[in-house]
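Appendix B.2, paired examples.
Example (i):
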Amino acid sequence: MSPVPTITEVRARSVLAPLSRPLRTASGSIPAAPLLLLDVRTDADVVGHAWLFGYAAETLAPMAALVEQIAPSLVGQPLVPVQRMRDFEARFRLLGMQGLLGMVVAGIDMALWDALGKVLDQPVVSLLGGAPVALRAYDSFGMVDPVKDEALLRKSVEAGFTGIKIKLGYPDLAQDVAITGGVREIIGPDVELMVDFNQSLDPPEACRRIQRLEGFNLYWVEEPVAAADLAGHALVRRRTGARVQTGENWWFPRGLQAAISASACDFAMLDIMKIGGVTGWMGAVGLAEGASLPVSSHLFVEASAHTLAVTPTADWLEYLDLAGPVLTNPCRPVDGYVTAAGPGLGITWNEPAIAEFAA
């Protein structure tokens, strides 16, 4: 075996993982999580794992096909994640890395880091120069009914979560106000409350609704307008004074840089699948630090617990368990905090569950 292990195989499998709390948003409901599971095998007899969230089941087949097409170029290459990402950037420069291709590249990057951590018997956070630390997490809900979901909301607070996020964007403003007020009453004044419009409003309507929500002491207002509308986000900030969160749809670090240049947000929410995996995340956090932007994670609890721990302006980890049903040791919060597990990213597959939920 060479001093640096080499990649011998890359494969992908598709599952529809059941959600304990089906996710309702202004754009529709997600009853089960469409996940693409990635395996990167090395000649060190170690396999790196990562998973991707496809948002819709229709994305799984084309993402798997992309993995199959890319895999031959990786076989025989050294297990060096940063250099492999540079190779991807050169190979796809004319096309650009975004959409399904960007997601697949980021997933492979995560699997490479997981494999490297396993080879060295270290958690990825240690490879990045940090240590596993307890990160405060908020419990992430979809659209809720304060009456029907009161027990679930109270359970989150009793479990130690000091932040709760709900999704808004109901057909009329009165519903948004009533839902937000009902949730604030349940969780009390000491638990931070975030709201997420999931890009459902135009800037004038976003301003109108946010101004009506001022009395509920919101920690942030997330994606009130289309993610790509950086000018719209900046306008909402100026007109309402609300603290605007966005970023889960930025592609690679340059997406963050564009938002900074547009003064589009008060917070940055990095999605490790869209920001470019572990390698892309590390490139983005320096930009966030330079702009004094607090950074929170989007989904991907297992991997984000590693990268957020070495983020200089770390804020919140989003707790929304998508992959738990297909993992042998899901990453669970303790008293509202999440700590990175290892070796690697701490991801191991539950093979019987994968067989049961295969898509």
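Example (ii):
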Amino acid sequence: MSDRERALEHYQPVAGNGLLHRRLFLAGGAAVVGAGSLGLLTARPARAQSPPGLPEWMRAPGAGMSGYGRRSRFEEHVQRYVGSAPGTTGSGSSRTPLEQLEGTITPNALHFERHHSGIPEIDPEQHRLLLHGLVERPLVFSMDALHRYPMVTRIQFIECSGNSRPNLSSEPPATTCGDIHGMVSCSEWTGIPLSVLLEEAGVDPQAQWLLCEGADAAAMSRSVPLAKAMDDTLIALYQNGESLRPAQGYPVRLFLPGYEGNISVKWLRRIKLTREPTMTRDETSKYTDLLPGGKSLIFTFPMGVKSVITSPSGGMAMQGPGLYQISGLAWSGSGSIRRVEVSADGGETWAEAALTEPLLSKALTRFRMAWRWNGGPALLMSRAVDDAGAVQPTRAALLTEKGSQVSYHNHAIQVWQVAADNQVTNAYA
């Protein structure tokens, strides 16, 4: 028996079609197989008799330093998927290339975007935030004033309610993970709890809602429940340690953890407390859920429990039979992820994946699973469960509940088909 075969003996299947135990990715997992055995499964043997020659980059000093860093030119192929609405230059979206990233934090330059009338260039010296309506003391804040308040920092995701819409079409689109699911990103957000400003203004007992308006040319406006505003809503000023970028709402935005992204109004300029929702253009003409029978749901804010395998995923090619790592992301607008299960046989059998800590509330969670692919056809799926007990549905179950006209809040299970010719494609099961 070869060393490679002995190493494989440590991993017995826990579900159909070659899924292996999650212990490989748990703390101390390397000790289970013994030092060096993982390399026997994946690494190429070195040619000890011929050490590598001196590479070009070791023969002369490298580039100098700069005031603002940039990535390697060898990584410039990692780009967002950008699509503008026909006839416009500033309306549309750009989607995060999830399959090209690792960990859970999205780099600012790759964070997804959704715009309704372009990205305004706002001078922070001139920008003001008005807080008025059903309050005891209407207030106007300069950016300098906002930066004087105590701030908090949280790692949380934001997801467009139209994320994963391509998979609602009748045929599975032949494209990548990021192109389908890339309107979700996760950042470290820093700002002022909105409750602090509301308490300073003094909330009228009649107030139950907020109208929040942005300073873009569309004057994007949404109604926000007062209860959410007083809970965990942020007036965000920083993202991943630096000031918000213009495309993410510079110099100030609203951030409502777990709620559909459109309600986290960018370039925030006005908050008005009201008795009832304002029923703005942006929450009546769009962002409503059409149900079977012609009725619609409005203000369906929380994003459902969801997961997606990012590798292997659509557009990738396998390298032949062998041991692979299945990796993906899971999240829930209701809290933290409790469990992610993976299937390699189209949902016939499931095995629990390893979750990468820390497991944060309303944040992306990375999961991993070892898979010994035999080279034959396979259907890869992941299914997430959050700490409230909600389970990610199948596509068929979601369509049965919401009807064929559903357009928002698609959190159905993603299926990737792995073919014997090594190609990975999008599929429905």
